[in-house]
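Bench log, entry 3. Co-assembly request; chain sequences pasted below exactly as received.
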Amino acid sequence: MSKALFDLMARLADNKYYLGRRYAEWCSSAPTLEASVAAAAMAQDELGHARALYPLLRTLAPKAGVALDAEIEPETRTQFFTMMALSEPFVGWPDFVAANLLIDSALTQIFVAAQTSSYEPLEGRSRKVLQEERAHNVYGAGWAKRLAREGGPIKAAIEAALRRIWDETLCWFGPEGLDTQSDPLASTGTLDATPDELRARWLAEVGPTLVAAGLALPLRQNATTGAWELTESLPWDRWDADRYRLRALTPTTGSAS
Amino acid sequence: MTKHAATKTSPAQTGQTGQPAKQHKRLGTERVWLVLARRAYDEPLRQIGTVEADDGDLAGVYARSIYDEFAWIEMAVVPRDALLTVIGA
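Structure output for the full assembly:
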């Protein structure tokens, strides 16, 4: 359990740290002045959340068997639990919007599931994080709808950007098929949901926005149950469980590297 | 306000080449929102600026991040085209 909790906090902190850095790279270059200033504010939020999480690693490290101080601080860490999608700068504005809409909201789902966490430091931080993340959700949904409304190559660009990070974001919640007893985070009350439940909650949040914008992603709403479902299976053969990220496809063979 | 295209290259790429940005199709026109705020209960709401946004929610996000110089007790946004001119010189 201690290692599972350490890993959860590390991947939350690392992904927020890198998301903040990626946002910051666009804080003077977004399509409008307003969007640039808001991007700067979101970058500050994300880096602040990471800064609030990293100190927890130090207290969790001994029980998790992590002995190296250098692997605690973001400045000296050598192995980050960062999604592949955040490991390189965004190529264009659609990548920013896609990460804002999908990855940012996926990270937020963890804090939603930690509002009654048995790990008190996470429970306490969740309230503040969720308060600030409301604006991020509005921003991502607003820009996704706007780019989709432009149609033509701009809509195609945002669809492609969303599609590129779709699978990794969904896999990031954790392995399929774990029940409450077998999931180390749900069974200890760290989170109030299993990975499958987190995925379902996230789909229910982003699904309406994507469909309303007319963006073609592999999901649908079940007409009978109302639940949002994937229409394509996830590429678990490419999932790197140790680093919590998808392995990249090699361009020539299409196989995982 | 200068607007750029949604599909432009990254800031790093633009800076490295030193070339002027290519002209792309402008994104659709946004609505202008007046931003009103006050710092104390005995003050009236007054206009402190404007933002351009597609909807009120996004306008609110923009207003909060741009006009954050004071600890406002109230801030509101209203679409400029909702104002009815009574006297116009």
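The two ends of chain A are 30 Å apart (CA to CA). The first helix of chain A runs from residue 2 to 24.
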